[in-house]
Amino acid sequence: MNPDDRALVDRFLDMMAAEAGSSRHTLAAYRNDLERSAESVGSIGRATVDDLSRLGAQWAELAPSTVARRSAALRRFFGFLVDDGLRDDDPSQALPRPRFERPLPRILEADEVNRMFAAAEDRATSGEPTGLRNLALLELLYGSGLRASELVGLLRGAVRPGQPFLMVRGKGEKERLVPISSRAQAAVGKWLDVAPGGTLWLFPSGKSHLSRVRLFQIVRAMAADAGIAPERVSPHVLRHAFATHLLSGGADLRVLQSLLGHADIATTQIYTHVDSARLVELVNARHPLATRGR
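Structure (tokenized):
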């Protein structure tokens, strides 16, 4: 990437950090996509409509999701240049727009989740610290829909007796309130009674907190204990189960968006696939035309 382009990208990323609150990982992804795009067109700062129109052919071997991500990064970059008066024109209309379907999330049935809880509760009854910790992890993953990174990064005092919610810091360093059930509070309380002291973290490991990789391994082991194929289960699958089962129970999509911390409602809408029959029934029962005679 030439020095002029690098300076523009730096300015763009400074804006993304300051105004959009983008995380380090998001900024690094934008930089990588813009650098790869610069390799294809020579200079992204001076790229023309003709330059961008050739990208479709150059990116033909890439996955549609990668092409969509790079195109999105370039659109936002050119929008920034125009807004800041660094360009008079926006050539991004020439960028490729691949069509691809978002993969449906893997989910667990309610009875499978119940089996995981039953197995975890059996192990916790022995009073062994590992069993108590794992039950607390499961309660928070499925009961509150936390991301793996949000869960392992919880501070020791995050869950407070009698407080039915906790504050988590999610993607883009954005904070949100999530519900915490009395069951989860009780499980965390029992874990804290035996948890190592002298640490900032609710789920400590060594000098830091439990890693996402270790959490992944723990969740798979709990699935195996419940007689569920371990490859079907992960922390994110439990988050999907939280969302799917809430929606099946009648939760509002906007409320679900808030609980999950999704910036875009379109991300939340993917969960509507799992209970389309219930949604059709809801429309037939609640829509004003449902009560009109034919």
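The domain at 3-94 is CATH 1.10.150.130 (DNA polymerase; domain 1). The mean pLDDT is 84.
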